[in-house]
Design goal:
Pfam families: p450 (PF00067)
Structural class: alpha+beta
Strand content: 5-15%
Largest sheet: 5 strands, mixed
Transmembrane segments: 15-34
Distance between the termini: 52 Å
Helix content: 40-55%
Low-confidence stretches: none
Oligomer: single chain
Number of domains: 2
Number of helices: 23
Shape: globular
Bound molecules: protoporphyrin IX containing FE
Cofactor: heme
Family: Belongs to the cytochrome P450 family.
CATH superfamily of the largest domain: Cytochrome P450
CATH architecture of the largest domain: Orthogonal Bundle
Mean pLDDT: 92
GO molecular function, one term: oxidoreductase activity, acting on paired donors, with incorporation or reduction of molecular oxygen
CATH class of the largest domain: Mainly Alpha
Radius of gyration: 24 Å
């Protein structure tokens, strides 16, 4: 690697690199124009009246300048009428399946419509992480298994870390209001909390590590967008120029490799084996690949909850009249035993108004408008006869359903406790109204066997965060400051990263004991 680097830094090396890149671009262009794209035989969603390539470019421009408007137009003109359509985006054409085919797509095996293959493209897993992760995602099972089933065991630790994180980032001065940038504060707090579970102490308090952990997700997505339409060998060359990503990897290696190596050594220790630690297959014991798996989890585990909680904070400030109702519920559920024993998953589940508030906030301000992204890895025929050719990207418009007045009454109105009111007291029936429940009415976490494996952990994290806010602080928009405006970029919605809100530590003793 060092010799390649020194060759590339010479003038000859630079020229050789340019020749390779130009050849690769030419090759890609030839392949692009020569290839007759195979697409399902359904209509394109059109914004332009022009035919051909010019019309296609205008359709893409329309999508770029108003992606939400375009997506909702597609939902209203096609999806809602039970029709599939094709959506042009800068990097690909999506087959947007009609919602009445949700079940069919959900049940389709990965050998036909593959979720992992779609995710490998979205994240460019092979290049952003490691080729081994493309074929085997066993690290997701840690999230599905221990991280989900063990919530009761680690909840008190998560709560303790949350208090430490808030004291560190917000402070405990009850005498005055502090103005803090919402996105930057929430993402720092969530990164600290999630890392308590991902890497533990002391790394979850290391500033350099936390910064990398927070920044790596945008870097991964940015890299994936830049490289995705090039052939593999060009991608490998391009990765060499992704300096931000390389810098982050350096920091990750510095902090994570010693920890991983230390833990692997523990597994070899006969005493720790006696304690029930199963030996791990040698092929799974490469510290570099284990680190890449951890980073892959990191990318999934931090940004989505940070976006979700940021929007919840905005909705808390927009709706001060709901604070007391949320606080009363917290007092009723957690106030019985005012010590660490009040922190159980069962108690978090009993906070149905808080749960409803988070779901409602996410329904109106989701991370993405489309869900259930799949890649056809062979030609697939749907039950209505539609052929989805191999290589087609498939998705559904979840946000259309979430805003559909025929599915959700007053769908465009924020109603914090709408899902709490729907509950009848029957635990089984009520489960469908929970934030973490992935259903066709709630696709925030996807749907089916590939629905987000971290959704129970995410729910616990969001709830602990918001309980901490409601119990220990007063929050509000400060007078004269601009209100946050989230923005849609293609299929994604980004919270406003520039606006602030006011924080003050409460003097009330009403919740004493709960966080002590
Ligand atoms: C509110 C927070 C979160 C939201 C809204 C969210 C949403 C999603 C969605 C929509 C998917 C794709 C599902 C599909 O393809 O059908 C997903 C996948 C995933 N999520 Fe989450 N998630 C959240 C938090 C978390 C957390 C905290 C973790 C880890 C602890 C996590 C781990 C994962 C993993 C490992 C995947 C699979 C990614 C892949 O297939 O490449 N998520 N999540």
């Amino acid at each position: 690697m060092a010799s390649i680097q020194s060759f590339l830094s010479t003038e000859g090396g630079f020229i050789a690199l340019r020749v390779i890149l130009l050849a690769a671009v030419a090759l890609t262009a030839i392949r692009y124009f020569a290839k007759k794209e195979r697409l399902p035989d359904v209509e394109f969603l059109r914004a332009s009246n022009k035919p051909g390539r010019a019309g296609g470019s205008e359709d893409i421009q329309a999508f770029l300048s108003d992606s939400l408007g375009t997506i909702m137009k597609g939902y209203n003109e096609y999806s809602k009428l039970g029709k599939h359509f094709l959506l042009r985006t800068p990097r690909q054409v999506y087959f947007i399946a009609a919602p009445n085919f949700l079940e069919e797509i959900r049940k389709m095996p990965d050998s036909k419509l593959s979720q992992p293959a779609a995710a490998n493209i979205i994240f460019q897993v092979k290049h952003n992480f490691h080729p081994d992760l493309e074929a085997d995602n066993y690290h997701f099972n840690v999230v599905r298994g221990k991280m989900t089933q063990g919530i009761n065991q680690y909840l008190p630790d998560l709560v303790a870390e949350t208090v430490h994180a808030f004291d560190f980032e917000v402070g405990s001065d009850a005498s005055q209001w502090r103005e803090l940038r919402t996105w930057s504060l929430v993402s720092k707090l969530v990164t600290r909390m999630a890392n308590k579970m991902l890497v533990g102490a002391p790394l979850c308090r290391n500033e350099e590590y936390l910064q990398m952990s927070c920044d790596i997700t945008p870097a991964v997505f940015d890299t994936a967008v830049k490289i995705r339409n090039y052939p593999d060998f060009v991608k490998s060359i391009m990765m060499y120029f992704m300096k931000t990503k390389e810098q982050q990897l350096k920091i990750a290696r510095k902090h994570l490799l010693p920890v991983i190596e230390g833990r692997l050594a523990l597994l070899d220790n006969p005493v720790s084996r006696e304690k029930g630690n199963k030996p791990v297959d040698t092929w799974k014991r490469n510290p570099e690949i284990l680190m890449q798996r951890l980073l892959h989890l990191n990318v999934n585990a931090i940004h989505a909850p940070a976006y979700t909680v940021t929007e919840c904070m905005v909705d808390l400030c927009k709706n001060p009249e709901i604070h007391e109702e949320l606080r009363a519920e917290i007092e009723q559920v957690l106030g019985k035993n005012r010590d660490a024993s009040c922190w159980t998953k069962e108690n978090l589940d009993r906070l149905v108004k808080l749960d409803s508030f988070i779901r409602e906030s996410s329904r109106l301000t989701p991370i993405s408008a489309v869900k259930m992204e799949r890649l056809a890895v062979q030609d697939v025929r749907l039950s209505d006869g539609t052929l989805i050719p191999r290589g087609t990207s498939v998705a559904v418009i979840a946000h259309g359903r979430h805003l559909d007045e025929d599915i959700i009454p007053n769908a465009r109105t924020f109603d914090a406790f709408r899902y709490a009111r729907l509950r009848t007291g029957d635990e089984m029936a009520d489960a469908e109204y929970a934030f973490a429940q992935a259903t066709s009415e709630n696709m925030l976490f996807g749907l089916g066997r590939h629905a987000c494996p971290g959704r129970q952990f995410a729910t616990a994290l969001c709830k602990v965060f918001l309980i901490c806010v409601l119990v220990r602080y007063d929050v509000k928009f400060l007078e004269g400051r601009p209100l946050p405006q989230g923005r849609w970029t293609q299929k994604f919605r980004n919270p406003d990263t520039t606006t602030t809100m006011g924080w003050q530590r409460t003097r009330s003793t009403r919740f004493d004991g709960i966080f002590d």
